[in-house]
UniProtKB/TrEMBL annotation:
The keyword Transmembrane helix belongs to this UniProt entry's keyword annotation: yes
Protein name, as recorded: (African queen) hypothetical protein
Chain segments annotated as transmembrane: 43-64, 137-155, 185-203, 223-241, 253-276
The entry's keywords: Membrane, Transmembrane, Transmembrane helix
Residues in the signal sequence: none
Organism: Danaus chrysippus
Length: 284
């Protein structure tokens, strides 16, 4: 085994770098060779997690069977999955007296969208273990995400971007429909998230095949052009900042649905060029 590894390394390093190698130490371990014993910390964490899961189950069942405004056993209801999910995904445009003091922190609720997308990513990662499913599934979810933004903007008659007006700055993040219903909601950020997953899978596969980027001056100029193009896309929303009646609903729907995937795609291409060193003389 040692000789075979040394021969393989020599062949690789000699072709690429003109160097020879020698294996001075060799160890081989299999998964069956090492058995990990549970210690007290492992048991404590297992008990803690099991307790939380049991509380989630008990709280959810109790919440489901009890009246909606019941006040007893409120601590158990804190573990209700249904109630917490409702709070996580809802917004209040009228101002709830109980959370009036949290107005300044309302923007932090965007973390709820991150959590929803994180859960979506875990589910997709499990489904997409089979390589043949990646393209159709990711493309389908991407289109569904774009459609969700379009439908939401159309039904709720929202603005295509977050428009800041001086008279609304104070309460915008609390009462602004566009911010609360699109910017903070998980489904409105699915296109960008899926494009990020596509980029990750593409880089993973191409690195395994040691993708070689051609040394082409024209390609470099195109890559450089992405910077002003991305900047132009980023500031394209300024067309909606003008002293005029609101744009037609279909125009707002189209812009809202397409701006995020377009901008995310440009950022993904920029990252792709950095990863595979378009500007470097030697590529990965």
């Amino acid at each position: 085994m040692k000789t075979s590894i040394e021969r393989c390394l020599n062949d690789t390093f000699m072709k690429e770098y003109g160097l020879s190698t020698q294996v001075t130490r060799f160890n081989c371990h299999g998964l069956s060779d090492s058995k990990r014993e549970l210690d007290k910390a492992d048991i404590a964490i297992a008990i803690l997690l099991l307790t939380i899961v049991l509380l989630n189950v008990a709280g959810t069942i109790y919440d489901y069977k009890s009246k909606e405004n019941i006040k007893d056993k409120k601590y158990l209801l804190c573990f209700s999955l249904a109630r917490n999910w409702k709070k996580l995904t809802s917004y209040n445009s009228n101002g709830d007296g109980q959370i009036e003091y949290l107005k300044g922190l309302n923007g932090i609720r965007y973390l709820g969208a991150d959590m929803q997308l994180y859960c979506l990513g875990i589910i997709l990662s499990v489904i997409l273990k089979k390589k043949s499913l990646r393209k159709p599934v990711l493309a389908s979810v991407l289109l569904l995400g774009i459609a969700a933004i379009a439908i939401h903007t159309y039904v709720r008659d929202l603005d295509p971007i977050l428009i800041l007006a001086p008279e609304e700055i104070k309460t915008l993040f609390w009462t602004g429909s566009t911010f609360n219903e699109t910017y903070k909601m998980g489904h409105a950020n699915i296109p960008s998230f899926i494009i990020g997953m596509m980029l990750g899978y593409y880089v993973y596969e191409k690195r395994k095949t040691r993708l070689q980027v051609p040394k082409n001056t024209g390609l470099r100029y195109l890559y450089w052009a992405l910077i002003p193009l991305t900047t132009a896309v980023m500031f394209s929303g300024e067309v909606f900042y003008r002293d005029a009646p609101r744009d037609p609903l279909l125009v707002r729907v189209a812009y809202a649905a397409l701006i995020k995937p377009i901008f995310s795609s440009l950022i993904a291409i920029l990252l792709l060029g950095m990863i595979f060193k378009v500007e470097s003389k030697t590529h990965y």
